[in-house]
Structures are given as C-alpha cells and as structure tokens.
Design goal:
The structure is a homodimer. The longest helix of chain A is centred in the N-terminal third of the chain and has 13 residues. Chain A starts with a strand and ends with a helix. Chain A is built from nine helices and 21 strands. Chain A is an alpha+beta fold and about 325 residues long. In chain A, the strands form four sheets. In chain A, strands 1, 2, 3, 4, 5, 6, 7, 8, 11, 13, 15 and 19 form a twelve-stranded mixed beta sheet that branches. Chain A has a five-stranded mixed beta sheet with strand order 9-21-20-16-17, with no helix packed on it. In chain A, strand 20 and strand 21 form a beta hairpin. Chains A, B: This is Hydroxylase. Chains A, B: InterPro entries: Fumarylacetoacetase-like_C, Fumarylacetoacetase_C_sf. Chains A, B: It comes from Nocardioides agri.
Amino acid sequence: MRLATFRRHGDEPHVRQVGLVLGQGEHVRVHPFDPGFDLVGLLAGSPEWRDSQADVAAAGDGLPLDEIVLLPPVYPVAMRDFLTFEAHVDGMERGHGNPGPPAAWYDAPVFLFMAPHAVTGPYDDVPMPPDTERLDFELEVAAIVCRDVRDVTPEEARDAIGGYCVMNDWSARDVQGKEMSLKLGPSKGKDFATTIGPWVVTADELDDCRDAEGFLDLEMTVRVNEQPIGGDRSGHMGWSFEQLVSHASRASWVKAGEVLASGTCSTGSLAESWGRNGSLVPPPLQVGDVVEMTIERLGTIRNRVAPPEESVAPVAPARRRTRLEASA
Amino acid sequence: MRLATFRRHGDEPHVRQVGLVLGQGEHVRVHPFDPGFDLVGLLAGSPEWRDSQADVAAAGDGLPLDEIVLLPPVYPVAMRDFLTFEAHVDGMERGHGNPGPPAAWYDAPVFLFMAPHAVTGPYDDVPMPPDTERLDFELEVAAIVCRDVRDVTPEEARDAIGGYCVMNDWSARDVQGKEMSLKLGPSKGKDFATTIGPWVVTADELDDCRDAEGFLDLEMTVRVNEQPIGGDRSGHMGWSFEQLVSHASRASWVKAGEVLASGTCSTGSLAESWGRNGSLVPPPLQVGDVVEMTIERLGTIRNRVAPPEESVAPVAPARRRTRLEASA
C-alpha cells in the first residue's frame, strides 16, 4: 500500500491530509482518507485494519497529482541518518586522503541526528542555501518508524518499521567540511532541505524485495537534468534497516514518527566522485538543475534547485576572551 | 518566573503538569497551573499575561518537592548542542594532540542535533550506558525556544528565547571517540541521557545578569560526590544565545519547543582534564557517583549514576560485499 500526505491547491498552508495512492504514471490518483487519519497511525495498525480503511478511501474519488501538492509523507519527531554503504564511505575517505573506510566503520552502524524541520515535499523546489559553492545531493532509502521501541533485537525491530520512501539529503559540502573539522558532524551543511517522498510504501508490500539475509534489495538511481549520474542497490547496505533500528534502540528510545535513513548509496552523490577523481567532476549543482531520484517500488522524487532566498547575515566571529585567560 | 514540569507520586507515567515554582531551598513549593497549560505556551505569552496566570496558580496550594517528581521541563521537538566555550575546545583539542582550537572554530558557532527523546528529569538516576568505561558529564546552559523563527537577526532572536535551565549532556567518551573518527559526530555516545532542569527561569527574569555586550553571565559549577570539580561563567561563551539562534535560523527553521545548549563550559567535563593531563585524571564516573550541577539563578540538578539496565546485544559487524565489488 502507498500512503501520501498532501493538500489541495488553495488549502491553507497548515492543512495536511493523508491519501491512498492508486494507479501508475499519469494515472496515479490520491484517494483521501477521512480527516483525522494519521499516516504513522495507519502504518502502526494491523494490515487487515489498514486494508479495510483503504477500501473505504478507494471507494471515494481520487485526485490527480495536478490538483494537489504532495507534502513530506511525515514531519519527523526525530531523524537519523546512517552511513551504511561501504563503497560510498570508501570514496569519501579517499577525498580526505585516506586509503578507504576506517576499521571502526565495520564495527557498528554510525549515525547522526538530522534537522527534523528541514523536510521538503517530493516535487518542491529547493532554494540554493547560503555560503556554498558545492551543493550536492545524497540518494538514500528512508524508513518510517511506527512504534516506540527501546532495546529491541533486529527481529523485534521489524514490527517497528512501517514503510519506506526515497530521500535526498541535500548537502552543502564546503559548509559541511568546515563543520566536520570541528568534530561535531554537519549541521548548517545539511539543515536547509531534506526531501522525502513521493509517498510511503508499507513494509508488508516489500517482502518480495528482500535478499536471502533479509536485506531490502531495491535498485536506486539518480539523474541530474535527465542524465543518469549514479545508482546502486539497497542490498549493498552493510546493515539491514532492522539492524539499524536495533542499534539505535540500545539504551535509547526510537519513537513512532522517526525517520531512519540508509545514508548515501555508492555513486549517489557528487562528493564521492570528487573524492575518487580528486577534482570537482561532475560539477556542483547550480540554480536551475533538476535532481531526480528513483527507487524501485518506492517511486520518484524530483526537485529543482531554485535561486537563493534572502538570508539573514552571518553572525560575528567568536568573542575571544577565555583563550587569553586560559593561557594566562 | 520559574516554571516546572512535574507529576505527583502515584500519577500515571504519562501525566505531565506545569507548575509555578515559589520559595527557596527547603521552602520550594510548586503551584500547579490548570491542566492544559503548556510550559512553552507560557513562555511564548506576554509577561503581563503570564504574570496574571501565575497569580492564579500562586493562590492555590503549593506542593513540596517530596510530593512530586520533577520531569524534564520540556520534551524537545529538536535539540541542538553548540560548542561555544573556547577554553573547553582548547582542552579537548589537546587531547587529540592538537595545539588548540582550529581556526574554523572562531568563524561561526558549530552545533549538532542531539537525541531529543533522551531528556531525563533533574533528580533522576542515570543508568550506566552500555559499552563504556569512560562515562563523563558536561555542564551546560540550555535555552528554551518559544516561537518558530527563520532567518532572524540576533536582535530578533531575543524574543524567541523563552527561558533557560541547567543541562548535563552525559557522554560516553570512548563510544563518542570511535563515532567521531567516522566524521559524523557523536550519536550512541550521547543518546542515552541528557538531564535538563530543575525548572525553566524565564528570560525576562535574567535581564540583570547580562554583561555589557548582552551576554548572559552566570556562574556555573559542578560537583562530583559533593567535591567541587569544575566551573566557569556563561559569559565566557564565544557567542550569545541570541547569536546561536540567529545562526541556526539561517535558511532553516528553529521551532517553539526546541532546546539550544551552550556546549560544555571550561572544566565542566572530565574529558577536558583528560586532554590537558594526558591521563584519565580525574577518573571516569562509576556507578554510585552523584553529579551535581548548579548555575546561578537557574538552580541545581543532581543525578546518581545507577547500575546499567539490561541492553539488547550489539548488532553484527557490517556485511562486507560492495568493497570487493568496488575494487574488482
């Protein structure tokens, strides 16, 4: 089952409605559930109950995509981004002058918490963020958590993953590089936009896409201005999504409404090529570029880089004071 | 005005009520607001309206602290931790074998997003997290955001900060170090507990604590097992909280209910001493240790390190696959 969040053209900006997605290509129609239905709540329910609700929605009129705005399927209560594709880590490390992934990468699936308010809709324009000359994309699979869990095994975690969607973790590489030199991981380098969508495909719908070890194995591709530029398979993750949830849940809550992302697949970003090539080839994104990401069975998100919005001025440099005192 | 979140002993675990804190020391009493009042909503209201609501609460009976459980004053919609104390960065960098803060530190206030579900109450026990032999504390000031802002100047940001409280950003330094070697910043090294409290002091109450440049300047101290172990002044931050909000808001939302923290003050953690001393002196925290943090005007939080809870087993190492393919 495919579940979308949307509003109609002309609705107030705060309106969000959940719909059942039926049909393919030009024949896609979004059939609204009754107001009050929550996408994460639908994911958390039993498949039988969800099916019965979907039957009611399907019986109503469907809306073509040109009558609605698709919104981010969820507004996450928290967002974690992992780093699970070995070949991507390999390319990025080469960009830092290292021979390949550090040994620590293999031990456990590291992640960072992301800006939860930066999610944007699957076809929204993304304004060029300030301070960057190296705008990049990151092709990822995102899992939507539908139940609160803590200290669960990978087997137990399976029930907590309600569905999956495509994600573009837009990145300002020059800003990010500076931030990472301070050992805190990226913040402003990644907090301006994270595109998720176009809708959520429920986990039960993807059981036939698992490999022998249970890893979700879907083809992932990215195109820039209609030219294929990269792609991989989600089966190349070093850990399954169930393992990611289990790891995150150790002595910590993972809550309904969270989004957990795979991290960038290999060749799913420009920076990996920059690392391997030792130069900015292919070039960073420019205003007007259109980035299109497709994951088998999950759909396509497509976003144009828009001119920058007006931003407030950068803050002043640090007030220096304690340095002098500390060395006194 | 001081505002606390609490439940009475015997209340269901999900119950949260907001109260006005009156009195000092043993005479502290928490006077409940009517159910339905929200702490962030009280911070966002005008001082006059808040005062009138407080008058109503003050007229009712007050509860002594032994009749209630103080909860985290807010359950953040997002949490950012900055790195603003120059002398702390200096000590940490020495621990990494560097001569002092990198030049990039001075340019802009870097931050990370933290685990928003890990907040714990001001007097709660904190179980020893798994996988660590280097448990540490971090003494910080936290600001509570009460309005949604985007692209605001420091002057405009002032209105968005509703109040302040004490924060202990508990850290498993060995876990954190390993994660930071992967350039994503700490995740499991810091996601098990972040103590905030004991209550929120409204920003208008602290206008007399600002220095000539408008920086909040409060004495901060930390004691372990009743022995003073570190302390600093919030005036030693490299940027004011208004500048932190402004920076975070550049091309991005900062939303009501967020917590923005100063980062660790100098000598406000053990790791800074480990960096300077080149050895684990003072020793890492052990089960039974009590960490007590006091910030002038904001109050005291006090937490005992409890025995570890039972955790799920670590996940398996990465499935190696693409490495072979990539190098083929």
